[in-house]
Design brief:
By secondary structure, this protein is of the alpha+beta class. It has two domains: 1-43; 47-219, Sortase, Chain: A. The chain has four helices and nine strands, in the order ααββββαββαβββ. Strands 1-2-3-4-8-9-6-5 form an eight-stranded mixed β-barrel. α1 (2-22) runs antiparallel to α2. The longest helix has 21 residues, at 2-22. The protein is globular.
């Protein structure tokens, strides 16, 4: 048992070291595909179901992104499929590989884990120093690297489906306004309608139990 724990700890430390090299806060423009491939190899040894990673430099958001068949599956399971109150970071199950609006969920654990730091995007000062989101994805031998610029922070109803989230983007791009179900919005740049990602987590205060935080970013 002790040996197994040691091996798991060694693997996680190795992944963290590689990811730090992949996107260092001091040099976040130089993404190294070879280092990401090493991460994928490590994850594959763990029989991973995904080879996608999300990283926001100088934050704790540095996780594997899973692709579930059901949005409830990873709410209380980690990337290995084991029960874990922190859950995992995962795509909306209705998000396809060629989707123009990618939706990713994660819990707000209020302990700097998962997507808790998305709350900070309501402050412009935080956005200025954490305005880029990186996604690395491996499919077969092909590795893609994508960089997204944060454009908005929103507080939305918790009943938004993928279809409604897509409509939210279209309404803002086409008419310069948002539909019902959006309580607050702070824009940090023009919404161009480019390929986008929406990072979504729970609002933390009890008075906002029926709300979700949404950080919107477009491909840079």
């Amino acid at each position: 048992m002790k040996i197994r724990i040691f091996v798991c700890a060694f693997v996680m430390v190795s992944i963290a070291a590689i990811i730090y090299t992949w996107i260092s806060p001091k040099d976040d423009e130089k993404l190294q595909k070879n280092d990401f491939l090493k991460v994928c190899e490590t994850l594959n040894c763990d029989k991973s179901k995904s080879c996608t990673w999300i990283k926001i430099p100088d934050t704790y958001i540095d996780y594997q992104v899973l692709r579930p068949k059901d949005n409830n599956y990873y709410l209380r399971r980690n990337a290995s499929g084991k029960l874990d109150r922190n859950g995992a970071i995962f795509y909306d199950c209705d998000t396809s590989s060629g989707d123009g609006n990618v939706v990713i969920y994660g819990h707000n654990m209020q302990n700097n884990k998962m997507f808790s730091e998305l709350e900070f995007y309501r402050k412009e000062a935080f956005v200025k120093s954490h305005n880029f989101i990186y996604i690395m994805d491996k499919r077969g031998s092909k590795v893609s690297k994508q960089k997204y610029l944060v454009k908005a922070w929103m507080l939305i109803d918790d009943k938004f489906s993928k279809k409604k989230l897509d409509e939210l983007k279209k309404s803002f791009v086409n008419r310069g306004r948002v539909q019902g179900g959006v309580s607050k919005i702070k824009c940090y740049g023009d919404i161009d309608g480019n390929k986008s990602i929406m990072l979504i987590t729970c609002a933390s205060r009890r008075t906002l139990e029926d709300k979700r935080i949404l950080v919107y970013a477009e491909k840079s």
